[in-house]
Amino acid sequence: MAVLVGAVLGSFLNVCIYRLPRGLSIVYPASRCPHCHTPIKWWQNIPILSFFLLKGRCSWCQTPISFRYPLVEAISAAVTLMVVVQGGSILHMIWAEGFLLSLIVAFFVDIDFQIIPDSISLGGIVWGILGSFAGASLIPSAQMGLGILVCGGIFLAIALLVPHGMGGGDVKLAAMFGANLGLTKGLLAMFLGICYGSVIGVLLLAFKIKGRKDRIPFGPFLVLGAYTTYLWGGEIIRWYLGLTGF
Ligand SMILES: [Zn+2]
Q1: Nearest to 92 by CA among 101, 83, 105
Q2: What is the pLDDT of residue 163?
Q3: Are residues 55 and 1 both part of a single domain?
Q4: Same domain (yes/no): 96, 186
Q5: How much distance in Å is there from the Cα of 105 to the middle of ligand 1?
Q6: Within this chain, do residues 64 and 124 fall inside the same structural domain, yes or no?
Q7: What confidence category does residue 126 fall into, taking pLDDT thresholds of 50, 70 and 90?
Q8: How far is the CA of 16 from the centre of ligand 1 (A)?
Q9: What is the pLDDT of residue 212?
Q10: What is the tally of structural domains in the chain?
Q11: Residues 6+ apart with CB under 8 A from 4
Q12: I need a labelling partner for 106 at 20 to 30 A (CA). Which of 11, 14, 63, 170 fits?
């Protein structure tokens, strides 16, 4: 059930990834081929399966369909399965799904457009505040409030001090981490994001996949940092405190 629901939600995430940065409605019209605009029939719109039924092409104009569509649906199915296996209250699972799945949208939109939609970052801050007060995120309200201010504040300071160092979208995304993960884990997510960005950024330059003048979006690395923190943040923090002798 979790995998099925996750795959269907993943199909909706694909709609958001395509339409949010283009300023289109996410509910209307129904899915259509972005090339020939032929509406997609129900059997062509089954998550993951339809991509293979259609052999990766629009049945009308034969334009190739990006492999990213089934990939996003599979990731969403895996994340949803993880959330259900981890368990907790229904409210906790709903909060976790909203937080984790919206980050998948931020990840791919930032790769495509070098922006993070406000509906994800600012909406995610509201989601984290509600999640904390409802007891869904299990983050105490002080951790949540400080998380928004400090996580967002650090990146805001970098954005103001270092020209072209950081975009406003990254600042709002950091505040969104603070809202949903709390101060401690929010900071860890940002730190891990910077580590991933540095290592992968150097590799992209070394293998000449990206040039010095290309802008490499930072959001995807921050999202990977948030996922690592969500999955293993507690262990990482305990390991670090053990190292430092606290
Ligand atoms: Zn088509």
Answers
A1: 83
A2: 78
A3: yes
A4: yes
A5: 23
A6: no
A7: very high
A8: 19
A9: 77
A10: 2
A11: 77
A12: 63
Residue 104: domain span: 90-246
Tens digit of each residue's pLDDT (9 = 90 or more) over 38-92:
998 989 889 999 999 999 999 999 999 999 999 999 999 999 999 999 999 999 9
* Residues found in the chain: 246
Is residue 69 domain-shared with residue 129, that is, in the same domain?
Answer: no
Give tens-digit pLDDT for 55-65. Answer: 999 999 999 99
Distance CA 190, CA 158 (A): 13
Beta bridge partners of 39: 32
CB atoms near residue 84 (< 10 Å): 17
**How far away, in angstroms, is 64 Cα from ligand 1 center?**
8
Q: Do 102 and 81 belong together in one domain? A: no
The Å distance, Cα 35 to ligand 1 centre, comes to: 5
Poorest-confidence range of 64-68, 128-132, 224-228?
64-68
Q: What is the pTM of this model?
A: 0.94
Are residue 31 and residue 100 in the same domain, yes or no?
no
Confidence class for position 244, pLDDT limits 50, 70, 90: confident
pLDDT of residue 246: 64
Do 126 and 158 fall within a single domain?
yes
Return the residue matching tokens 């802008």.
215
CA of 55 to the centre of ligand 1 (A): 13
Instruction: Tell me: do 64 and 116 sit in the same domain.
Output: no
Which of the listed residues 86, 107, 130 is the one where a domain comes to its end?
86
Of 17, 51, 86, which marks where a domain is finished?
86
